[in-house]
Structure formats: C-alpha cells, structure tokens
C-alpha cells in the first residue's frame, strides 16, 4: 500500500525541475516568489490557504513553537504555519518527490530556515516522544488504512496539552465516492472513514476532541467558483494538472458531484493531547 500511494502522487517525475522549468519559462524569477504564489498546487486541499489559516487560528501556537505537519505534500500548509505563526515546522510525507520539491519551494520563498521536509511514514514517525508543540494533518488520512496508528503516533510525539488539527476528507452518507479523485484513481488506495469512525480513532489514540466541524457546503461552493472562474491574465503555470495530467478536470467534476451529493465530506477536528 505505501508504494502504491507514493507512486500515485510521485508518478516518476522530477517535480522540482518540472516546477522550476515551468516557472522560468513563463518569466517568473525563482528568487522573487511568495508562499501564497504556490497556493494552486501546494495548498490544493479544499478551500486552500484560507482553510489552513482557519485551522491555524484554533491551534493556539506561540512564536517559536515546533510544529509537525503529517503528510506535508509540497509544503504549503507548513509554509503558511511558519509564515503566519512564526513557528518552526517539520513536514513528513511518504512521497520523496514531494519532500524534495517542498524543500526547494521553501528555499525559493525564503522560508527554508523555518521549514524542513522529510520522507517518512505517518504510522511510524521518526521522532522521539513529546517533541512537538502542535501538529496538523490536512487531506492525508484518505490514503491510510491504519488511522488509529497514525493518530497514536501523533499523540506520542506531541507534548502533553499540545493541540492536533485535522482537516480531512471523510466518507459521507450519499453513496460511494466517484473516481478518479486526487487521492486515488480507483478504490484500491482510498481509505475513507466516516466522521464517527474518525472521532473514535482519535479518542482511542488518547486525544480529547475540543471541536469538530463539517465544512462540506463551503468546500463545494469554493470548488465550484474555482472551477468556473476565468484564468488570470498572468498566473503561475504550476497547477494541479502538473500532478494529475489530463485526469485533473475529471477529478474536479467527480469532487463537485461528490460534495453536492455528500458522498464525500470535508471535516475538521481540533484535539488536545
């Protein structure tokens, strides 16, 4: 399963070079970029950077805190946290190509000193106990069969009383998810849980749930607007099509239908270790 997931996202491409070449060929200067410039690809979860900021507001972080991003992808969430909370963030992701590109992008936007990205497994984190002041995971659990192990590991590496923010896609009551989706081309690597199952895993792992929220309607409206709005005259050429190729448009339509029919939900949990 881990190899299938890594292959799905990595797709055998040199992402760092592809992103750099696309930017330079479109006239962008790699030394004059901002973290928010990369939102179309490095915060391609529902509601983008705004959702990350909303999650961050409930994390109660202090400047200089040490934060873990589990399933960090291309690093957008980690960079937003580093930038907005003045925190030091370590990201862990199963896909080596994502980690390499995430470190490169952080260096391009002058956040390399506040972020670091490592290849690793969310169910077996390479850190000692009680190391982090906070942790987040954004649109990650959909690919993880053993969610309890993932949350137990998060609890283990957090300091007592630290907060854990989860923003994920979960199984809705409206029927089976439609594929392809960004996290899976078919059901073989899709591991959605219901909100009730997610709550149970978090409680079993030792967390206290402080807040939970269903944002499915907001996610549908956001994606609908994003899919129909005209493309800006000058925009970064780096989009989700770089990751998913010709299936990106089909994935968008499947997600719109899935959210509208509540086959899939977007859900947030704020927990305390």
Structure description:
It is a single chain. 42% of the residues are buried. The chain has one domain (2-272): Rossmann fold, CATH 3.40.50. Strand 2, helix 6 and strand 3 form a beta-alpha-beta unit. The longest helix has 13 residues, at 96-108. The protein has a seven-stranded mixed beta sheet with strand order 3-2-1-4-5-7-6, sandwiched between helices. It is 40% helix and 19% strand. Residues 4-12 have low confidence and may be disordered. The chain has 273 residues and is an alpha/beta fold. The two termini are 28 Å apart. This is Class I SAM-dependent methyltransferase. Keywords: Methyltransferase, Transferase. It comes from Aliiroseovarius salicola. One of its GO terms (molecular function) is methyltransferase activity.
In short:
This protein has eleven helices and seven strands.
Give the DSSP E fraction (strand runs of 2 or more residues). Answer: 15-25%
Number of domains: 1
Radius of gyration: 17 Å
Shape: globular
Major pleated sheet? 7 strands, mixed
Quaternary structure of the protein:
single chain
State the distance separating the first and last CA atoms: 28 Å
> What is the H level of CATH, i.e. the homologous superfamily?
Vaccinia Virus protein VP39
Task: Assign the structural class, choosing from mainly alpha, mainly beta, alpha/beta, alpha+beta, or little secondary structure.
Answer: alpha/beta
Query: Which percent bin holds the helix content?
Result: 25-40%
Ranges where pLDDT stays below 50 over 5 or more residues in a row are 4-12
CATH topology: Rossmann fold
Number of E-type strands:
7
Secondary-structure element order, N to C: HHHHEHEHEEHEHEHHHE
CATH class value = Alpha Beta
State the CATH architecture: 3-Layer(aba) Sandwich
Counted by DSSP, the helix tally is: 11
- Order of strands in the sheet with most strands: 3-2-1-4-5-7-6
pLDDT average, as an integer?
89
GO molecular function: methyltransferase activity
Organism: Aliiroseovarius salicola
Keywords: Methyltransferase, Transferase
Domain Methyltransferase type: 68-164
């Amino acid at each position: 399963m881990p190899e299938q997931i890594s292959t799905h996202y990595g797709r055998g491409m040199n992402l760092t070079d592809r992103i750099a070449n696309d930017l330079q060929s479109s006239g962008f200067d790699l030394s004059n970029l901002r973290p928010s410039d990369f939102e179309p690809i490095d915060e391609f979860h529902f509601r983008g950077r705004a959702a990350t900021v909303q999650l961050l507001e409930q994390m109660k972080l202090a400047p200089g805190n040490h934060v873990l991003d589990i399933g960090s992808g291309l690093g957008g969430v980690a960079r937003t946290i580093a930038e907005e909370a003045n925190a030091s963030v370590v990201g862990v992701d199963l896909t080596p190509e994502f980690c390499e590109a995430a470190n490169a992008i952080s260096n391009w936007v002058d956040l390399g000193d506040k972020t670091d990205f490592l290849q690793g497994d969310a169910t077996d984190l390479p850190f000692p106990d009680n190391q982090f002041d906070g942790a987040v995971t954004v649109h990650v659990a959909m690919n993880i069969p053993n969610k309890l192990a993932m949350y137990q590991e998060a609890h283990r590496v957090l300091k007592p009383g630290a907060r854990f923010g989860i923003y994920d896609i979960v199984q809705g009551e409206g029927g089976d998810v439609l594929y392809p989706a960004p996290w899976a081309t078919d059901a073989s690597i899709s591991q959605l849980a219901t909100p009730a199952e997610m709550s149970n895993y978090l409680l079993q792992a030792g967390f206290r749930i402080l807040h939970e929220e269903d944002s499915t309607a907001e996610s549908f409206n956001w994606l609908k607007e994003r899919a129909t709005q005209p493309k800006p005259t000058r925009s970064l050429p780096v989009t989700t099509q770089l990751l998913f190729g010709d299936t990106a448009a089909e994935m968008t339509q499947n997600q719109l239908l899935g959210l509208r029919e509540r086959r899939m939900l977007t859900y947030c949990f704020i927990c305390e270790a």
